[in-house]
TrEMBL record, chains A, B:
HTH marR-type domain segment(s): 6-140
Name the UniProt record assigns to this protein: MarR family transcriptional regulator
Pfam family, one: MarR
GO molecular function per UniProt: DNA-binding transcription factor activity
Gene3D superfamilies according to UniProt: Winged helix-like DNA-binding domain superfamily/Winged helix DNA-binding domain (1.10.10.10)
Amino acid sequence: MSTEENTDLKTLLGALVSSGHRLTRLAATATDDQRSPAVWRTLSALSSYGPVRLGELARLSRVTQPTMTKIVRNLDDLDWIKRIVDVEDKRAWLIAATPKGLAALAEWRDTLASALLPHFSGLDAGDLAAMQRVVEILDERAALDGSAAFEGEIA
Amino acid sequence: MSTEENTDLKTLLGALVSSGHRLTRLAATATDDQRSPAVWRTLSALSSYGPVRLGELARLSRVTQPTMTKIVRNLDDLDWIKRIVDVEDKRAWLIAATPKGLAALAEWRDTLASALLPHFSGLDAGDLAAMQRVVEILDERAALDGSAAFEGEIA
DNA sequence: ACCATTGCATAGCCGGGCTATGTAAAATGG
DNA sequence: CCATTTTACATAGCCCGGCTATGCAATGGT
């Protein structure tokens, strides 16, 4: 991979992050959403990884443990997660999404996507394919396990 | 556009927003960044639109005016923006990015993108093209003017 | 048994979000 | 011209998600 290609990828990555920020605000204003990205991100992680320790959930979400403690307390109040005693370690909690939480996540996605639809009308099949591919790339590369595993393979 | 295609686009949009959240956290942890997405988003908007009123900047960024007042005060303290008296209206300020602010934005993008590169190694030209296209779509559709203009054209 | 490490909660701070309110300037209408 | 309404921004207060630092209890190692 030449320097020029690296520069192109670099430029793209910077632009992708910026565009993502913009999309985040669009998403926040497109619906009367009372919850933050952190809530959905956390529920999404629980949905993907199943019950995990609070500290591990923090790691997966790339936030510090006290931050995750706060988020989890919030989700607990909503009955969107439940705490499970980790029988192997009395210090630890396993955090699991409840059916109510998963339903809320699904509903959020649906409501949000519906609200965003008008902003993205008129895209052709090629555009959809591009979006699909980028989602795949991000899910693979921005996920902690995926990223770590990939680096392991290269190194 | 059939219902099925709408469903696919809906699913994609929801996934894209989620993936974007994940990328945001990756970006936040990939660098020792002391500034938030709001700072960069605002500087980026000023870079794109040139000097605008504080209220208009809030609108462009999809946040409320008091929020933007805070962000602008922050940027002002850093000498990354300057306030310009709007000669047409004594109540209003024009907010412009300073060269120092624009340099900081460019440096952030470079530093961030460099830090992200290892996570995204091994992508092929098709992947880059997909990312390029998605950035274009988001910039066009998530931007306030672009989105509004497009809706106007359809209606 | 003792000590270091680990897991989570708490404390404190900051900034970005919001709604509500206040002040001054500008626009509007009689 | 003047009273009223609207507009532009600042301030206040609240909440939440970030962080670092610290505390307490459990666990692991020697």
